[in-house]
Design a protein that fits this description.
By secondary structure, the chain is mainly alpha-helical. The protein has a domain of 134 residues: Tetracycline Repressor, domain 2 (Orthogonal Bundle). It contains 9 helices and no strands. The longest helix has 27 residues. The radius of gyration is 19 Å and the shape is elongated.
Length: 199
């Protein structure tokens, strides 16, 4: 007879995402996963593999549910710099208040931890960086079309700067950074690229 799972793998993976996101890989053991999900080790191993395979699956789920939708929304927004400012405002809000306050970003956390030594994880981190940078650049292109950018703005360098700023917000939020200070930093970062029209 085929093996019949008596649990929802998707719901289990969502629980694991939250566990790895909040606690990190190094401080999360298999027993922590067993306790959080209510499953036994054999069920976890049979469905997901070992801890590293489970972490990879959780990281993929995180970017699918949290990162890609936000990046698509920014890239397709069309408002230019107001969309960039709104992106950072929402990022600071979710990182500094509410349920996920001080959890940081699962991707930024992976950049800072030993888990980035895994080639599959490193590939996902690089793709995440490229997708965020491309979304920032798309927003800057929209800004340029609407006369919102200062003359001579380097779109590639500015997109990279804003991408790195997003990672900085994510990392600083884990230590309880003042959200108002983060908002002021974003305002200062956007200042040099702002032109005179409609921003």
């Amino acid at each position: 007879m085929p093996d019949i799972k008596h649990f929802d793998p998707d719901a289990t993976l969502d629980t694991v995402v939250r566990l790895f996101w909040r606690r990190g890989v190094a401080s999360t053991g298999v027993q922590d996963v067993v306790t959080a999900t209510g499953l036994n080790r054999s069920s976890l191993y049979a469905t997901f593999g070992g801890k590293q395979e489970l972490y990879r699956a959780a990281l993929r789920r995180y970017v699918e549910q949290w990162s890609w939708p936000a990046f698509r929304s920014l890239a397709e927004d069309g408002r230019g710099l107001p969309a960039v400012a709104e992106f950072f405002g929402a990022l600071i809000e979710v990182r500094c208040s509410g349920e996920y306050a001080r959890w940081g970003c699962m991707i930024a956390n992976a950049h800072a931890g030993a888990e980035h030594d895994d080639p599959e994880v490193r590939t996902l981190l690089e793709r995440h960086h490229q997708e965020l940078r491309d979304a920032m650049r798309a927003a800057l292109v929209s800004a340029g079309r609407q006369g919102q950018l200062a003359p001579g703005t380097d779109l590639d360098a500015s997109a990279e700067l804003l991408t790195l700023l997003a990672y900085g917000v994510n990392l600083r939020s884990r230590t309880g950074a003042d959200p108002e200070a983060l908002r002021r930093t974003v305002t200062v970062a956007l200042g040099p690229i702002r032109g005179g029209a409609g921003t």
